[in-house]
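Deviation from plan, reported transparently: zinc ion complex.
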Amino acid sequence: MAVCRPQALDSEQTWLEAAQAFIQETLCPAGKETNVQLTQLVIDCVKTTWLSQGRNQGFTLPLSYSFVSVRDLRSHQRLPCCSHLSWSSAAYQTWAQEAGLSGSPLPRERLLLLGTLTDLSGDSEQEDRNGSLYVKDNTGTLGCELIDLDLSWLGHLFLFPSWSYLPPARWESSGKGHLELWGGPVPVLPLTVSTGPSTPVPVLYPEAASRLLRHSSKLRVVQRNLAGKLVRLSALVKSQKKTYFILSLGESSPAGSQAGSCVSIIVQVPAQLVWHRALWPGRAYVLTELRVSKIHGYRYHVWTTSSSSHLLPLKPECVQELDLQPELGAPLLEADPKPLPRTSNIQDRKMQKDLVRDSRLLSYTGTVTGVLNQAAGLYELDGQLGLCLSYQQVHGLRRVLRPGVSLELQDVHLLQSVGGGTQRPVLAPCLRGAVLLRGFSRQKPETQSSPQVWGASLYEQLVWERQLGLPLYLWAIKTLEELACKLCPHVLRHHQFLQRRPPGNPSLGLQLLAPILDVLAPPRVPSRNAHKEILEEPHRCPLQKYARLQTPCSFPTLATLKEEGQCRAWASFDPKTLLPFPEAFHLTSCQLNQRLAWSSICLRPSTFQPAQVLLGVLVASSHKGCLQLRDQTSSLPCLLLNKRSQPLADPQLIGCLVRAEKFQLIIERNVRSNFPSWKELSTTGFIQMQEARVYVQFLLADAMILPVPRPFHHSATSSTCPQIETESPHIGQSRLFLLSHKEALMKRNFCVPSGASLEVPKPTLSFHVSGSWLAGTQRKEGTGWGPPELKGDKHKDQKVLLIFLGSSVRWFEFLHPGQVYRLVAPGPPTPMLFEASGSSCMSQRPLELAGCSSCLTVQSKWTLELESSPDTPDVANINKALPASSLTDLLSGNSTDSLVSFSAEILSRTLCEPLLAPLQTKPGSSGARRGCVKLTVALESADWEFPPHLDIYIEDPHLPPPLGLLPGARVYFGQLEKRVSRSHNVYCCFRCSTYTQVLSFPPETAVSAPLPCIYLADLLQGGQAPFQAIVSCHIVSVFSLQLLWVCAHCTSLSLQGRCTHQGSTCPTQTSVSQANIRLLVEDGTAEAVVTCRNHHVAAALGLCASEWTSLLELVRGPGKVALQFIGPGAQPESSAKIDEPLTFFLRTLCTSLSVLRPIVLSFELERKPSKIVPLEPPRLQRFQCGELPLLTHVNPRIQLLCLSIQEPEHSSSLGTFASFC
Ligand SMILES: [Zn+2]
Ligand SMILES: [Zn+2]
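Because the crystal trials were delayed, the predicted structure below was used instead.
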């Protein structure tokens, strides 16, 4: 040590010089001469404190410590730290280890902090005091927190031996850090010890004080001193006018007088607000010079402090009870018949019918174990309770709160099972209760997440403006956090989402919640009255009563929604349900698998619990041309309609935030399976591949559209939504065009423009529209467009073909016939930009076909705007109706190869064999090849009572079909190719030119209208006949009956259950039965031939299920039984021998009354309408009646297909052959 000594002396000298300079600059009163005395006092104080611990390592001065000023802390200390003078490293280590396991302890700095403790935030005496506490030196002030304030410390200079400094939290608007002062400060100058008053102070105890209050109107205004135990302390209330708090004094010795008496005192003098930090519930105090006054908004008189009031600890020897007897007289001193209700910790819980409960009011001491959301005032206490501080304005305290802080909560509400996703009980103080700091945390605060940083003012708005109850508030906070995770930071920035938007608009977050909050907590005029909340008995506040919240809804991420949709779609995929039994029984393997190949389900929000709300930003994919909703997790294709029958046409919707409570989540299931027959339907092993196409469809009219602030577009990194940044929004040119036709979006071949790369061109995703220019090019003038360039009449109505390829395909979903669009080219005007004849890109022939004189490739940086202003030339006169072919043209079989357009409702959608498929493919192997989609539609027509049905086929390259072609949907089909089959049925096919537009989504509840009941003669009236109907008729005779068993795999005849196919290699020997019967029916108006197949044959024969099964089993042996009956009553011809018992039985059955009987027949026409229109005229037929030849008109026979056969009501089943089985 001796060797070190001179060096140490040098260091001490340097340290002392630095100390002197620091003290002079920072602590001595400014502008005065060097204050040697103060400097010495400060150094002595530091020295004494340093030496007091005995761990000074032989140094008399803390040489490793340096002085720090308030300014230096604020400007240089960016990280939280603590400093403990005279602590050894070991002492610090022990201290730090107790910081808790979860967090890291505050790092240690060796800094000496001195300053004056004050409740003035600045230098000026006039500055508002609001109860905050500061450490002040010549360089500035810094907010501080102290556990046990002695009021006599204010205004004195202290050395703070132990403290922590925390830089400002990001959400705090003040931008200042704060100090946490551990332990008592050491005064630099000895404090004057108050000796107390020489004579005892005359005081009133609470009982007398409150009685005096009730008679205050009769008394002179006299200032009194009140004494008692502090039983309640309210929060510090900041109203617009003033800041105040209310304390209640109770009897200090309950045994002595009437228990429970207490009196409230309002403290609102700014200089006294700091008392709030010095008061400890349970301790006894004297408050001097109080007066009785009336306060605004409260009907009773209360005690208030005057500016000369003092707060003193109650020492019984220094006070003397004031005798009110002479002043008030005897009667007034009688015990009050109605004592103020006792403040009980636990209020009685009343059970109420409407599930509204009362919260419990209690006091609680605990330790903060987690910060759930600091800006929203949500914490975790003791690992099991929630703590919500939002119903108080305790911002000063909130900055201190972090794991490790211990708190005393006075008169706090306990709310249990609040619902809405919050599991644990929650403590929440209202204005009546106080949150008192009882211990600091040794942990470093955690870095805050962005939603917390930006959400602070929104959260406050929810409590103080929207006045949400706690359950709803907690749900809203949780939901906002989830929403922020869904959308931020890539889709939206946190501040864009959470902050209020100018001018005074609510934040996007609040707008998204508003529809739900409006229902659950309608906006109200602020009604919290702080005085009443604190003073009035019984207590009333927003936390007093609450009801368990049923989670109103959830905003799933798009990824979750997709996944949930797929899960449900596959969970509900049951081949046995999709193929009901009696029908499946007769299907061959190929038919079976084809029927399973495509199906769809539609999930609505109400099918989820809680209901789901769809949310995402609308983007138009420049890769796929489709519309998508996007969030952070995923993107979901969507199909939007403006409203019913109105397509989405406004490209301005791109980039908007869309929120929909009404939507349909569609899951199309594509399945490849190889079920051998119906018997294996419950075995999942036969499903080879399953994939789902998930998308949503909804009406924009049902959705909330929120434009997102522009900066989003520049920050968006999405590849599929390139928001082309225009060089300047004030330069550009545009031209209006009317769209007349749009073609399908598909891969097409294009010639490479000269000068481009020499690569072999690949088919490019693209589409064309044709239309006509409405006027010349217009230049940007300010915010509008200048007059169109006049180029003579020839430019008027000039036809044009626009080609969209590359990223321009993103406009596909917005372009619709009949709409007027403005094509905008940003940048400096280029002459003839919109005149270019792009014939280099395309052969001249299609142009000629389209009747266009020019074609133009839409460049990727060009944009589209929907033009809807009425002053646009010609726009008003445009007929927006979609072109439609006449039904007669459509259904007549004579003109082939023509293009037809119509609106129709889709009745069914199935997969089938490709139309022109070569037949070399093995039957049965075609399970679910990507064949061909067949839509059966009912045409819409005002003239036809019963809509005719038509089949539409979609084949490659138009697969998969556009979104929304679902059974129940109404769709406009433009420019389909009409074809006529060999059997003269009209059907349609998709072509490159085909345009489809969904007009309405499948209805919410698919109510299938009952089939009309008609007479058979109605069917002879041509086009007006329904395609499907019910008729009550009589079976006149049976023409033919065929029962057979076929190999389920190759459909060859099956004998004894064995496939008879030559060189049979069929994998299974499963055979299925098939049946067919042709009947003649008549209903008194006409006759019809009805074909019944499979299970309908059993109904036609009047056989029950067991009879039918037995009959089919009998046929299994011969493999096939076929009977032909020639005319009514004629002898049957049979493939089998007539005398076989089975043939004999069937022949007898078919001619018996149990078959030839009245029935109710549901049917459809065997031919699609083309065969009916034009109708064959009745032809003359010659009959021989005995000797007489008769010539009469005979109507063509109506051919019907049986849909079902019912027995007429009241007709008892004959059951003649019941004994057969
Ligand atoms: Zn309350
Ligand atoms: Zn076979």
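The first helix runs from residue 5 to 26. We consider this an acceptable substitute for the interim report.
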